[in-house]
Design goal:
Layout: H1 3-12, H2 24-30, H3 36-45, E1 48-50, E2 54-56, H4 68-74, H5 80-84, E3 97-102, E4 107-110, E5 122-125, E6 131-134, H6 138-146, E7 165-167
Antiparallel strand pairs: 1-2, 1-7, 2-3, 3-4, 4-5, 5-6
């Protein structure tokens, strides 16, 4: 287990066993590989909500609630390009891929800016359409958002809400 996923599990007292997932159908739908660290996070926790704040998508198709495919399909609209400028629109080469968000309307993306998905940074689109780039993996970003003293301002809530995880309803 990577250090960030292990620390998230310890902070949230998460003890359920990891669920093996066939990521190939998800990657085919997205047209991109899914970073290994995200796979580990999603297989450890599944889709759900960290600290009553940060939502994490999981595998599944467009019909599945809280799935990467559904999140991606939701961003295929003409105005997405304006919201994410200067990045390419979602669905185009190099375009951000949504993987989660917050109860405040913030949306989190991968920025597939290299051939190695394990180096893709996180792009956060704030509710006021402010864009923030974090050179962290998704588990590192989630950890920094929910642990006390987290460093991903303005998305850190660990000093306000105890770290927790609630699985999404099926």
């Amino acid at each position: 287990m990577t250090p960030a996923v292990a620390e998230l599990a310890a902070l949230t007292r998460w003890t359920r066993p990891r669920t093996a997932t066939d990521w190939l159908p998800v990657e085919r739908r997205l047209g991109l590989p899914v970073p290994a660290s995200f796979k580990e996070l999603a297989e450890t926790f599944g889709p759900g909500e960290f600290s009553q704040y940060l939502f994490l998508a999981g595998p599944g198709d467009e019909r599945a609630a809280h799935s990467l495919a559904r999140e991606s399909a939701a961003w295929l609209f003409p105005g997405a390009a304006d919201l994410l400028h200067p990045y390419p629109p979602p669905g185009e080469p190099g375009g951000p891929v949504p993987w989660g968000g917050t109860c405040h309307g913030d949306v989190f993306f991968w920025l597939p800016d290299s051939a190695d998905p394990d180096t893709w940074p996180v792009l956060a689109l704030g509710e006021s359409t402010d864009r923030h780039r974090f050179d962290l993996t998704v588990p590192e970003f989630v950890l920094e958002a929910v642990r006390p003293g987290g460093t991903v301002d303005p998305f850190a809530v660990g000093d306000l809400v105890p770290p927790s995880f609630l699985p999404a309803a099926p």
